[in-house]
Amino acid sequence: MMANEHAYCMAIEKLLGIEVPIRAQYIRVMFDEITRILNHLLWLGAHGLDVGAMAVFLYAFREREDLMDCYEAVSGARMHAAYYRPGGVYRDLPDTMPQYKPSRVRSAKKVSALNKNRQGSLLDFLEDFTERFPKYVDEYETLLTDNRIWKQRLVGIGVVSPERALSMGLTGPMLRGSGIEWDLRKKQPYEVYDQLDFDIPVGVNGDSYDRYLVRMEEFRQSNHIVKQCIAWLRNNPGPVMSDNYKVAPPKRVDMKSNMEELIHHFKLFSEGMHVPEGESYAAVEHPKGEFGIYLVADGANKPYRLKIRAPGFAHLQALDEMARGHMLADVVTIIGTQDIVFGEIDR
To answer: How far apart are CA 308 and CA 294, in angstroms?
Structure first.
């Protein structure tokens, strides 16, 4: 997802010493928060299914489809976007949104209703989504927050004290659920997070229910950040990619009319960029926790060494301690509250 791309691009940019255009920074932050909402929607749906709440899965995937369409609109791909590039983003935000078309299973009337909020630009579509989304979060909370079965399955399960959370290297909602207000967006701001208004939700008891409440509030805070980014992007046009041709390709028109730009284009696409010798570490507040990239360059066009610090790998080690004294059925709840994804922990 795009948050993973972000850390990798930041590590390269740190070594190259290049500055990302301000508009590209706002676009990156906006899509980081869209990614956070996407991640938490998948977590909520799957966590609910794991402990027996079937309906919320369908609700969560209803909203994921809208945001996946935003991914596809900017990059052409729904999952592996490759939209962030060292020096900025691949291209500016599109002026149109993909629309549904009539088919044998969808009448023209049905399609017209589906396309109602897709008549304008991507920003128009996202603005409409941010207006609707708080009501959807209220629906999820109506289904779960005071549901007695949900509380029986989560309250008091997988308790982690603040001291143990720090000792085991927990980050993100896993750490904040234990009452520690640590968020890289506030404590070590990157891009334009220090210019945006948002709060950091924290838990009190350090159990699975508190971690659930933290993530539910993160829905609302991410939605608030996206709104601020939309307002800024509407009023501030500008470049979205560095003009350093050692890193970013020249415009097609320039490449086809100027020999120097043609050489830059050929070198960049045949060899790639050469990063000066050195090492860097860049981390972002990924939806699951701290996602870091440790990069060692030897001056070649490929990294000498690349270490990915995935949050899920550190969280999985806590499973044994969190599950002690509980029933076997509670292990399912604890795996859900950790928001584990196998791609992060497969070593």
So the answer is: 6
CA distance 233 to 31: 13
Alpha-carbon distance of 344 to 52, in angstroms, equals 25
Contact status, residue 82 vs residue 90, Cβ threshold 8 Å = yes
Q: Exposed (0-12), middle (13-18) or buried (19+): which is 212, by Cβ within 10 Å?
A: buried
Tell me the three state secondary structure of residue 146: coil
Q: Which residue has the tokens 């948002």?
A: 198
**Is pTM, for the whole model, over 0.90?**
yes
CB neighbours of 251 closer than 8 A, spacing ≥ 6? 261
Rounded average pLDDT over 29-33: 98
Alpha-carbon torsion, ordered 221, 76, 191, 201, to 10 deg? 20
Structure confidence at residue 347 (pLDDT) = 66
Token pair of 197, please? 């208004």
Which among 308, 303, 293, 296 is positioned nearest to 344, based on CA atoms?
A: 308
Cβ atoms 2, 31 nearer than 8 A: yes
Kindly report, residue by residue over 224-261, the tens digit of the pLDDT: 999 999 999 999 999 999 999 989 999 989 999 999 99
**Cα separation, 6 vs 22, whole angstroms:** 15
Reported as half-sphere exposure (CB side, CA atoms, 13 A), residue 256 has a value of 3
Distance CA(95)–CA(71), nearest Å, equals 14
Angle (nearest 5°) at CA 67 between 150 and 49: 25
What is the token pair recorded at 242? 């560095």
d(CA 322, CA 233): 43
| SS3 at position 81 | coil
Asked whether residue 170 carries a pLDDT value surpassing 90, the answer given is yes
Torsion of CA 139, 142, 145, 146, to 10 degrees: 180
What does the chain come to in residues?
347
**Local structure of 261: helix, strand or coil:** helix
* Nearest partner of 287 among 308, 306, 310, judged by Cα: 310
